[in-house]
Amino acid sequence: MSSKSFDSASLLEPIPIDASLTLVPRVRVTLTVHPTNHSHTKPVDDWQLKKALLDFLKSSLAVSLSVPDGDLEIRRVKDVRKRRRDDPVAHGTLVIRDLGFLKSSRGSYAEESGEDAARALEEKYADWKRYLVEKMNGMDLVLGGVKFMLGVEMPVSDSFQAMRKEWEEFHAFGNRGHSRGRRQEPDTIVLRGVPSRWFAEPRVSSKPSMLVTHTIFSTFGSIRNISVADDDDFGRESDEDPDGLVSGLHCKIVVQFEKHEDFHNAMKALCGRSLEKQGSRLRADYEVSWDKDGLFRNSRSETQEKSSGMTSLASGPYRSEFPKFSRYSPEKTRPKRFRE
Questions:
Q1: According to the UniProt entry, which residue ranges have a biased composition of type Basic and acidic residues (predicted)?
Q2: What is the pLDDT of residue 17?
């Protein structure tokens, strides 16, 4: 698939980006659970909470949704008594993967084709996501005789339109002193929470490979810079002990494209999707964003400063040779930590 094809790909169709990797559509919302009585000090029953939410999805929406138990994740606050008054007692995520009903219920525009059909489906998809949030947000839950209120939000990173609005406003009003001579446009994506093994060289290592990662993401367009590193903090709670975790399971990938157009198409393909690998039952619900801090631009400036400093030191009676810096960021290696 060419880079231009990603821009015209249907929102509800899978997108292959490699011989074994495919981007599949899904809807994800974040959940928070607050007790109506702020002095509540007992932990919420996560089993009852999950059952109440799954029953609601089956019986209270315009289209009944059967969500697998594994796609509804609930995390309780460890010590409810230590939480602040306005903090939730539990939070989690809901992922809806079976979206076939949207394709089969397009109504009067089902016979349309081309750009009109794509635009109509995009509007239908956006309307349904808003409907889902409106139906669930603020709903009352009674669990074990205690009343709770559910908060539901759609992450900005799951909406391409919201992400595009964000970067357009950022570069229009807050370009942090960049040159005003020409229009600033983002060109770098940041991907967190993808399985390291999926980007490793088979039968060589379980660590993500720069070469493999470059090959996969070059599907979207020409790459200027790329960085791959372990992402051990992904999905970890702020109060969770990091020493009990296995490192190296996830990686963080930063890709800078040569053209803004390729960045645009990559973001459109990655937003609102999960990653699947052929032969694996795992679906990677990654987080995608764009680089606001000029990662590669700042690192290049630091490299140039160091290089100029070395050159001035070497300008005396003796000549010194210094190593050249690669245009690609080296892999970040960290010692592995395993559960005792």
A1: 321-333
A2: 92
Task: Please tell me whether residues 103 and 226 are part of one structural domain.
Answer: no
- pLDDT digit string, tens, across residues 17-37: 988 999 999 999 999 999 888
Q: Are residues 104 and 179 in the same domain?
A: no
Q: Do 98 and 133 fall within a single domain?
A: yes
Degrees to nearest 5, angle at CA 126 with 124 and 130: 115
Question: Do 7 and 268 meet the contact criterion of CB atoms below 8 Å apart?
Answer: yes
Number of domains in the chain: 2
CA distance 94 to 30: 6
At 72, is the secondary structure helix, strand, or coil?
Answer: strand
Distance separating alpha carbons of residues 23 and 273, to the nearest angstrom: 6
Considering the domain architecture, whether residues 96 and 203 belong to the same structural domain is answered as: no
- Give the 3-state secondary structure of residue 287: strand
Q: Are residues 139 and 27 in the same domain?
A: yes
Q: State whether 203 and 327 are in the same domain.
A: yes
pLDDT tops 60 at residue 62: yes
Range of the domain at 248: 156-294+321-333
Report the C-alpha gap between 122 and 243 in whole angstroms.
44
| Identity of the amino acid at 121 | L
Question: What global pTM score does this model have?
Answer: 0.78
Binned at pLDDT 50, 70 and 90, residue 70 comes out as: very high
- Nearest C-alpha neighbor of 46 from the set 23, 67, 15, 69: 69
Mark whether 119 and 131 lie in a shared domain.
yes
Least confident of 33-47, 74-88, 324-338: 324-338
What pLDDT shows up at residue 73? Answer: 95
DSSP 326: P
Does residue 183 form part of some domain? Answer: yes
* 202-248 confidence digits (pLDDT tens): 888 889 999 999 999 999 999 999 999 998 888 665 544 444 455 67
Which of 253, 245, 240, 143 lies closest to 189 in space, CA to CA? 253
Last residue within a domain, chosen from 119, 137, 154 = 154
The CB density around residue 17, as the number of other CB atoms within 10 Å, is 19
Query: What average pLDDT does range 95-108 have in this prediction?
Result: 77
Region of 131 please: left (phi>0), alpha (psi -120 to 50) or beta: alpha
